[in-house]
Structure prediction request, 324 residues.
Amino acid sequence: MGTVVLGTGSCLPERILTNEELETIVDTSAEWIRSRTGIEQRRVSGRDEQTWQLAATAARRALDAAALDAAELDLVVVGTISSHMQMPSTACFVQNEIGAVNAFAYDLNAACSGFLYGLDLADKYVRADASLKVLVVGAEALSGRLNWQDRNTCILFGDGAGAAVFGHSEEDRGIVGCNFKSDGSLWKLLYMHGAESTNPELRLADNSGPFICMEGREVFKYAVRAMEESVRGLLDRCRLTIADIDYVIPHQANIRIINNLVERLGIPQGKVFINVAKYGNTSAASIPIALDEANRQGVIARGDKVLFCTFGGGLTWGASLITW
Ligand code: UT7
Prediction:
């Protein structure tokens, strides 16, 4: 018995922005983007596609798949770094939109790791009280948080949302374990300022605006090493080996990061879900979108050991394992 996924859902904005179009916006080439990142295109929000709106649609689809009514939810958690408002949280907008009238709701800021940190929270709540139903969403509209003149970042990110509903099952399956870590001393490798302070004493001398800033090459190196360590630590703790893993759903940041990671771990390419070409890096939304696609395509089967791994600003990183 354990904490299981009762249903998944996702939502992507309509508008597709191709690498070729980016060539006309910033000093880059479609071929550079394709070969250095694996990204072919990404989705960009339009009117009525705010973070909370994408999140609410993904949430409704997850509830439909779980055959649950929103009123049955006890908790709504949204992992995001691109809320359209500082307050209230995106989770409160989602709660209101879907009618989760019996839930409490809050956001979780762990950048790209937001969904997996939320999964861990859901597991802890459900283990404490088996009657609880928890909705975890990863949602971003990062197109509004990019400097479109900065080719180091604007070519990488995309918008979207993914969601999963968690609850208890008496069956012999569910979340096996999680292994997370953060290192705030490395924050300068990947960050985004908020609005500038109205208190002159608290103004930041180096406020570069509310855009994503990144030391890409450094982040790349840390990402591969840190995720490898998390996966190995998690498997040791669960007394499992790489051979026990049936499927891997990694954070979709860069095809080269994914390939490097699975090669170091000795995991065959055929066991890895990759959709970075279609959506780019959707931060907290990347894993739940990939999970929803893998689930709906039927590539993960009941009883499979499914491994997730993530890395993002903070720095935050880690791995989770579910017996599906
Ligand atoms: O979600 C978690 C957080 N983010 C990540 O995981 C991203 C991690 N990092 C990466 O994915 C990669 O480091 C990038 C895709 C960001 C960059 O790829 P790279 O192979 O590490 O390139 P680089 O930064 O070492 O730059 C190589 C060259 C540089 O030119 P010089 O100095 O060699 O002349 C860059 O100026 O590529 C240049 N460059 C570009 N050229 C064309 C950087 N960005 C671009 C661009 N188009 N968009």
Summary: Residues 4 and 255 are 29 Å apart (CA to CA). The longest strand covers residues 2-11. Residues 28, 32-33, 36-37, 112, 151-152, 155, 190, 216-217, 219-220, 223, 253-254, 257, 281, 311-312 surround oxa(dethia)-CoA (CB under 6 Å).
